[in-house]
Every structure is written in C-alpha cells, then in structure tokens.
Amino acid sequence: MSFTKSALLGSAAVIAVVAGAQAADLPSKKAAPATYVKICDAYGAGFFYVPGTETCVKLGGLARFEFGYTPGKDTIDPKTGAVQQSGNVQSTTGFFERARLVLDSRTPTAMGAARTYIRLRVENASGLRNVTVTDKTAYGMSDNSATTIKIDSALVQWAGFSFGQGPDFYNMMPNNPFGGVTYAFYGTSGAKELAYTATFGGGISATLAAEDQRDLAYAQAALAQPATAANIVGNLRLDQAWGFAGVSAMVGNNSLNNTAIDAVSPGQTTFGAYAIGATVSYNLPMIAAGDQVWFTTNYAKGLLGGLLSNGGLSTLGGVNRLLGGVVRVDTNLVQTGGTGTASASNVLTYGSTTGWNLATEYVHYWAPQWRSIASAGYISLSPPTSSVASTWGAGKLWEVSGSLIYSPVKDMDIGLELQYANLKNTMQNPTAAFLAAGQPGLSVNNYSARFRAERAF
Predict the structure, then answer these.
(1) From the candidate CATH numbers 3.40.50, 2.40.160, 2.20.220, 1.10.3470, the one assigned to the domain spanning 65-97+161-456
(2) In contact, 415 and 452? CB cutoff 8 Å
(3) pTM summary value
(4) Which of 156, 217, 353, 384 has the fewest CB atoms nearer than 10 Å to its CB?
C-alpha cells in the first residue's frame, strides 16, 4: 500500500514537470509592456518626448468668449458737416469668440534646440465686433457673423535664427487689456520675418531682422511698390530679475508706383521712413506677488505701425468702433500736391505722416485669484502740409482703461473692463460747407465695456 501510494505521487510529480515544460514552449498571451509618455523637463513644464525620438512636444490652446457694449456715436461728413451716420442706427453690442491651438516642438542639436512653433486661431465676431471700414469717413455696420482663420505664428528657430511668421521684433509691449490701446503690441499675427538674435550673457540680447512691410499696420495699399518690400528691424534688450529694458528701431521705404496715375512719366518714388522706440518693465513684488508695470514711447516717420495697430485713431487699434465724429483712417503717405492728370509738369507729390506716443500698463494682484489691469496712453499723428482738399490735420487721442479679473483656477480668467477715450482732430483745407456748419465732429469722446471669459491650457 505504501509502495503504491509512493508510485502514484512520483508519477504525478513527473507529469507536472513535463506539463510545465510544454507550457513554457507555448506562445505567451501576456500584453506587450506599455510605453508610457516620458516627461521632458529640459524646456520647461508641459513638454513630453515623442516616443522613440529625442523630440519634445508641448500642446496648448485657448477658448475665449467676449461680449462688448459701446454707445453709438454720430459720424460727420467732413465735406458738408452733416451727420453721415446716426449713432442711433449703429450696432452697440457685439459677440466675439476665439479658439487657438498651439504646437511647440524642440529637438536638441549641437547648436541648441531646433524649434518648430505653430499658433493658429479661429475667430467669430458679430455686431459691434464685426465693424468694417468702408471709406475714410464712415463705417459700414453689419450684424452678420464673420469667421476668420489666422496664423499667429509659424516659426522655425535654430541657432539664434528665426524663419517664418511670428511677433515682430520692434514692439515690446504686451497686450493685456481687453480693448484697443495707444501702442502697437506683440502677440498679434506679427510679421513674416528672417531674424537673428544674439545672446551676450548677463541678460543682454540683440536682434536684427528683415520683416515683411505688408504685415505692418498702416501699410499703404493704394500707393504701393510693385513688389513686397522689407523693413529692417533691430532691438537691444536687457532682461534682469527686476524686469527688462529695451530700445528698438525700424527703417524702410514708403513707396509709390505712380505708373497708373501718371502715364506720361511713369516710375517709382521712394520715401525714407523709420521708427524708434524704448520700452521698460519693472516687477513690483514689494506691492504684491506678480505685479508688473510697463512704459513705452515711440516716434515714427511713415512707419506708423511702430505706434499703433491697424485701424486709425478712431478705432483704437482696430478692436472695434469706439469713437464717432469725423472718423479718420490715417495713412503713411499723404498727397501734398499735383492733380494726378497725365502731364509731365503736373506730377503728384507725397509726404510722410509723423507721430509719437506715450503709454503705460500696470497689472496688480489684489489676491492670488484676483487682479486688475490698468492702461493709459496718448498718441499724436501729424500728416504733412497738403494743398489737397479735405486732408487730415493732426489727430490727438488719449485713453484710459481698467479691469477686474477673477481666476478660479490656473489659466482661467473671468473679467470685466471699462475704457474711456477722447479724440481731437484738426482738418487741413476744410470746405466752406464744413466751416459753415461749425466744423462739427472734430472733438469726440466715448466709453466701452467688455466682459471676457477664457481658458487656456
């Protein structure tokens, strides 16, 4: 009995060993080890490695909703002094939506990271936010929704070089206020550019760039060179723990291809144009963590995009209609003489508009989740003296704005902003009818209110 029991147990052990060996030869049904996303901290938070490569990628985006209100203002015909468009028929409210997608990829090389940066945005605007300029004195009002797709940035950067489209290198001010401002700012669609930035250490850097003149605000469309030209832009920056200070300059040409308007003596006349500016920013942790203030001043001859974004004084940076009165759309070139007839002795002459600005912006944190943004600025534009009727004279505008913003979580803002602006115009060669009417609409003021909710990631 004992022998039989031992034999059975031994046989069972042998069978178990053989079965285990055979099982080891069968295909495994276990899943392959999972490949987890690997964090890349070499370029800051949010980057991760593309599996199987040395390339680090960061994805981002933004969704924004905005509602605005601006009281209507009569626009005046500068030839007759009559009301050209009543403020009672103008859109006073408007909706605005923006969606933005961002891709930032970097691959290490022996000469620094090779970077690709893409930022796309889609916008939809209606009512007050869908206002378009139809001529130099009036706005065409529309309550239709209009959707646009824009490239903010499409850049290849390597070894200090930047190729593509991105924020221009002249303007150094941020765009923190909701509404328009009396200075040009970075963060817009920027310019197509070829640039090189040298870093010298100690926070000192310098950039030299060729930027597409067509991407600059106030580029003259009707009186333009046959081919796209470039502005030469340079800046020098000092970045420190206390903030930064920078100076910038831009040179280019105001060009006139007068073949179409002067058939007898066709040709191209160019006008030297330039802009110079200085910007400084200070961090103010002694007041509150995150507080910061900026100051900028600029002077321009012809290259008015160094002073203000597209839209003219009356639209305050092209955000939406704000002021009525005699609405002006300023240009870099102004006709100063000639009638435009096909006569070699009667060639048109042109001069460059000049201008300057002074502006400040302050961000203050009342608490970690509550902050305010205050801005104030002044801008003056002066066209050259002209013998042509109904030509703009000087325009002087100042504005102030203030907002209160609540951030329940990081990168989410809910805020309300109020803005006030005052514009004073003069007119060269006013018509008799305009004088008889008392030159109305040359001084006007108005306010605007905007509500914004946005979330970035």
Answers:
(1) 2.40.160
(2) yes
(3) 0.85
(4) 156
Rounded to an integer, what distance in angstroms lies between the CA atom of residue 123 and that of residue 201? 40
* Strand positions, DSSP E, 173-321: 191-201, 204-212, 230-240, 243-257, 268-283, 292-301
| Separation of alpha carbons 369 and 392, rounded Å | 46
Q: Which residues contact 49 (CB under 8 A, 6 or more apart)?
A: 37, 38, 39, 40, 55, 56, 57
Question: Would you say 361 and 374 are in contact if contact means Cβ atoms under 8 Å apart?
Answer: yes
Give the length of the chain.
457
Cβ(454)–Cβ(335) under 8 Å?
Answer: no
Domain parsing of the chain, residue ranges: 65-97+161-456
- The alpha carbon dihedral of 261, 264, 270, 271 has a sign of negative
3-class SS letters over 65-126 = EEEEECCCCCEECCCCCCEEECHHHCCCEEEEEEEEEEEEEEECCECECEEEEEEEEEEEEE
* Cβ neighbours for 31, distance < 8 A, ≥ 6 positions apart: none
- Give the phi and the psi of residue 200 in degrees, each rounded to 5: -105, -5
Which single residue is written with the structure tokens 């910007």? 279
pLDDT tens-digit map of 30-69? 665 555 789 999 999 999 999 989 999 999 999 999 999 9
CB distance 419 to 394 below 8 Å: no
Which among 222, 289, 209, 191 has a CA at the least distance from the CA of 250? Answer: 209
Residue 392: closest CA among 426, 351, 440: 426
Among 350, 412, 52, residue whose Cα is nearest residue 220? 350
pLDDT less than 50: residues of the chain:
1, 3-5, 7-26, 132-142, 221-225, 259-268
Instruction: Determine contact, residues 123/189, Cβ cutoff 8 Å.
Output: no
Phi, psi of 23 (to 5 degrees): -65, -35
Contacts of 176 (CB under 8 A, 6+ apart): 361, 363, 373, 375
For 262-274, how does the pLDDT look when each residue is reduced to its tens digit (9 = 90+)? 443 444 455 678 9
- Report which secondary-structure segment, H or E, holds 23: helix 2-25
Tell which residue, 440, 423, 434, has the closest CA to residue 323.
423
